[in-house]
């Protein structure tokens, strides 16, 4: 009886996942290569596609640095609970997870758009945010910020502050404590957070679509290229770019799994 | 040193305000710029009401289906170790990493009218792409990992001793599941439900591609907001955005309420401290 439930339950779970996730994933790879390697290669090395992929890479890189630079202090702020305002900060960081990407894009446009308050101020110093690179980075940061903070806060709270106190008593400077005590212990969670950030900023669509205006060869990222191609009914190009993005995300998943394993082993080794 | 720290934290606060607080505040300002009347008018047009209705209905349906299936998948992963569970584990995270626009396109490719699967389905009278069923499929695709990953840790940290005691005392399988395991998991199930619900409500990329966004028929709230933006109606978009955010807030508030109704976190508190001890 129990064996029957076990087998049928597993089978149902597998079918559910295959129908909704697995088979579509395989279908896009098959669809992209349906008419052979040559058209596939041509459509992903077209000027527009190459530009889009490069732009996505650049945005991801800048986002990573911002998220890391801003995320580490914020995670200490939340995790320590000793600096006033940590509850508010925690709340702000959780916010993007329940805001639709379109709304995030809209929010940034309202503040940094051409007719908006800050947008006009920035335009006076010749910085264009909306419909340009900085705006797209802001949108990506908005959507991906929680990931690193989440990972780091859990790790900081789990590690505790005994080692930090020891370092302080022995006269180490805060910087030295950060480099010698915190970062070596936080490295796996930070790397895991970074990999999650890469995955999300690679795939960010809604917020970037609204903020960028999706101008061909100017602000068109890889996901926007996929969308534009599918709207224009250039299915070969859309499928080829989707297949590339799908493979990249699959590799990222493998990296994530590996990081999780390594982090666990590291924890056990201590 | 003290000054340094103060400078660092004020810099961080300014950055957080510029990126998160100010833009979201501006959405509210923009929504009520024309007063309450204009706001009410913008969000009570038939198209808007229909869009919110679709969003809420489909999110609740998705959340119910995926919480149930997520529970089954999580149990299959954690309890019924089988050769299949390795494959399961690899597939689950895919929707988290795949760009939402790409996942929409995947579904169009597989279930669209030109594919063999789509043809077979349409010969049986089922159309998925550009219909409401398509929205449901897209939402199910996107929210699977949230449900599973929310439930997995709770199942991992279950206290096996209670179950074993029940087995030893001769309880039948269904009784062990219904009276021992599920009651302990209820909080995790509650948060998985709310997580899937909010994720489904804010989903945009995959739905915009799969649904074909016909107003009144397959246009959900996020797509509706995008449509308004494309028509340069920033006030209307902001008003609809405020309503969508409020719906999410209600869902999250509901979680707190649900947790209260489900009773004190007696058992889970114990599990959590155990889990943290394991982590360290």
From TrEMBL, chain A:
Pfam families: BPD_transp_1
Keywords tagged on the record: Membrane, Sulfate transport, Transmembrane, Transmembrane helix, Transport
Transmembrane segments: 58-79, 91-113, 125-149, 190-217, 237-259
GO cellular component, one term: plasma membrane
Location within or outside the cell: Cell membrane; Membrane
Main subcellular location: membrane
UniProt organism field: Alicyclobacillus sacchari
Family according to the record: Belongs to the binding-protein-dependent transport system permease family.
Subunit structure of this chain's protein: The complex is composed of two ATP-binding proteins (CysA), two transmembrane proteins (CysT and CysW) and a solute-binding protein (CysP).
Domain of life: Bacteria
Role: Part of the ABC transporter complex CysAWTP (TC 3.A.1.6.1) involved in sulfate/thiosulfate import. Probably responsible for the translocation of the substrate across the membrane.
ABC transmembrane type-1 domain ranges (all copies): 53-260
Membrane-protein topology: Multi-pass membrane protein
Molecular function, one GO term: ABC-type sulfate transporter activity
Annotated protein name in UniProt: Sulfate transport system permease protein
TrEMBL record, chain B:
Keyword terms of this UniProt record: Membrane, Sulfate transport, Transmembrane, Transmembrane helix, Transport
GO cellular component: plasma membrane
All copies of domain ABC transmembrane type-1, residue ranges: 52-256
PROSITE patterns: ABC_TM1 (PS50928)
TM regions (residue ranges): 56-78, 90-112, 124-144, 236-256
A Pfam cross-reference name: BPD_transp_1
CDD domains associated with the record: TM_PBP2
Location in the cell: Cell membrane; Membrane
InterPro entries: MetI-like, MetI-like_sf, Sulph_transpt2
Membrane topology annotation: Multi-pass membrane protein
One of the record's GO molecular function terms: ABC-type sulfate transporter activity
Stated family: Belongs to the binding-protein-dependent transport system permease family.
PANTHER family: SULFATE TRANSPORT SYSTEM PERMEASE PROTEIN, SULFATE TRANSPORT SYSTEM PERMEASE PROTEIN CYST
Task performed by this protein: Part of the ABC transporter complex CysAWTP (TC 3.A.1.6.1) involved in sulfate/thiosulfate import. Probably responsible for the translocation of the substrate across the membrane.
Quaternary structure and partners: The complex is composed of two ATP-binding proteins (CysA), two transmembrane proteins (CysT and CysW) and a solute-binding protein (CysP).
Protein name in UniProt: Sulfate transport system permease protein
